[in-house]
Automatic annotation (TrEMBL):
InterPro entries: Glutathione-S-Trfase_C-like, Glutathione-S-Trfase_C_sf, Glutathione_S-Trfase, Glutathione_S-Trfase_N, GST_alpha, GST_C, GST_superfamily, Thioredoxin-like_sf. The keyword rRNA processing does not apply. This is Glutathione S-transferase. It catalyses: RX + glutathione = an S-substituted glutathione + a halide anion + H(+). Belongs to the GST superfamily. Alpha family.
Length: 236
């Protein structure tokens, strides 16, 4: 029996959470080994497990993979979540890079100095409203299909929906103006083709399971976990 992927990171979202989402959506079970101290990270560095001396690192299929996007691409390829040809892969990459740009802003928000946080939140909301979500809404509207590319599930859909959940935690009203992205309150009366992307992806059995309490999905970063992560990564 093949060994489950083993994820090396701290017990929080960070740059590993998208990998958790993609593995879970693909139906591939995984284990996790959490770093609790800076010494745990040093040990990984010293034993040669980290090519660039940094995590995330995932042991999968006999490899020790680092770099978040490389790991995501491998998982997507493995589970047929990366399009059927070069053109579809190019679109998936283009959409995923847009997701990553906005995700990075949200990801780093807890590290923002308190006196700058309100301005940073306003900046993120402005980018959500005027740049990123209109672009994804336009894609879905342009072809009228269930998914972003090729009318089939891809890593772009999964990572965008992860981002939608994160953005809603920041501002519950942020996606209200984007009907093809948001959850419809009458979802039970709609056919799959009429549902918004977030509803459609969240209803997939593997994703639905991942969204349940007690899953390997991590909660939003709180002050306690932030301080612990700072100590592990030696962030001032």
């Amino acid at each position: 029996m093949a060994r489950k992927p083993l994820l090396h990171y701290f017990n929080g979202r960070g740059r590993m959470e998208s990998i958790r989402w993609l593995l879970a959506a693909a139906g591939e079970e995984f284990d996790e080994k959490f770093m609790e101290t800076a010494e745990d990270l040093d040990k990984l560095r010293n034993d040669g497990s980290l090519m660039y001396q940094q995590v995330p690192m995932v042991e999968i299929d006999g490899m020790k993979l680092v770099q978040t996007r490389a790991i995501l691409n491998y998982v997507a390829n493995k589970h047929n979540l990366y399009g059927k040809d070069m053109k579809e892969r190019a679109l998936i990459d283009m959409y995923t890079e847009g997701v990553a740009d906005l995700y990075e802003l949200v990801l780093l928000l807890p590290l923002c100095p308190p006196e700058q946080k309100d301005a940073k939140v306003d900046f993120i909301k402005e980018k959500i409203r005027t740049r990123y979500f209109p672009a994804f809404e336009k894609v879905l509207k342009s072809h009228g299909q269930d998914y972003l590319v090729g009318n089939r599930l891809s890593k772009a859909d999964i990572l965008l929906v992860e981002l939608l959940y994160n953005v809603e935690e920041l501002d519950p009203s942020a996606i209200a103006s984007f009907p093809l992205l948001k959850v419809c309150p009458c979802v039970c009366t709609l056919s799959p083709s009429e549902q918004a992307l977030k509803t459609r992806i969240s209803s997939l059995p593997t994703v639905k399971k991942f969204l349940q309490p007690g899953s390997q999905r991590k909660p939003p970063m709180d002050e306690k976990n932030l301080e612990k992560a700072k100590k592990i990564f030696k962030i001032p």
